[in-house]
Specification:
single chain; Arc Repressor Mutant, subunit A; Tetracycline Repressor, domain 2; two-stranded antiparallel sheet; 9 helices; elongated
């Protein structure tokens, strides 16, 4: 019973933090306001989150996560859909909140660490899934570094958010993927080579 109450209180804290971040931004939301809105004491919040930025980043992650696991089976279409979802979200109020969080993190190493671990890492893992699947299936090159691919595909979208030098709508995303795709796809029609203890063999 106590565990159920704890989980309910934790959920209220996250919901309150999410609402305050959306209404006022990550910088303006305070732990006092979050606690009052959730009906808990500040010590309850610090039991689960060591800092204000930790709970703010968890709330921001929930607030700005438009991605779902309903991706197409085609690697190209799965990557394209994910990129479009991120670009669409960046163009919304949620994108502005992310931009504010990045600006705040630039002068706060602890907040920057929370941003990377609690917000950015989750998104990066989501983006990596169809790339890893494409490599495993042989549709994409076997020598690809997934981190490099993520930087090339999503870097321009993040740059557009931060600098604001050009809009990244669906057509811009599609153009970007068309340029990058030839460097990702596996052009070798021969069977994959698998190295075993006894030496190279052709996979079935």
């Amino acid at each position: 019973m106590a565990r159920t109450r704890d989980e309910a209180a934790r959920r209220r804290v996250l919901d309150s933090a999410r609402n305050l971040v959306y209404e006022r931004g990550p910088r303006a939301a305070t732990v006092d306001e979050i606690a009052a809105s959730a009906g808990v004491g500040k010590q309850t919040i610090y039991r689960w989150w060591p800092t204000k930025s930790a709970v703010i980043m968890d709330a921001l992650a929930e607030l700005t996560d438009p991605e779902q696991d309903d991706l197409p089976t085609s690697t190209y279409e799965a990557i394209r859909l994910q990129m479009r979802r991120v670009a669409r979200m960046f163009a919304s109020r949620q994108g502005q909140l992310i931009k504010e969080a990045i600006a705040d993190a630039l002068g706060d190493p602890s907040m920057a660490d929370d941003f990377r671990r609690r917000f950015f890492a989750h998104r990066r893992a989501r983006g990596a899934k169809p790339i890893a699947s494409g490599i495993a299936s042989g549709e994409l090159r076997q020598d690809l570094n997934i981190d490099d691919v993520l930087d090339v595909l999503y870097g321009p979208i993040w740059l557009s958010l931060i600098i604001g030098h050009r809009p990244m709508g669906p057509r811009a995303v599609d153009r970007l993927l068309v340029v990058v795709w030839p460097g990702l796809v596996n052009h070798d029609p021969s069977p994959l080579r698998v190295t075993s203890i006894s030496g190279p063999t052709t996979s079935p």
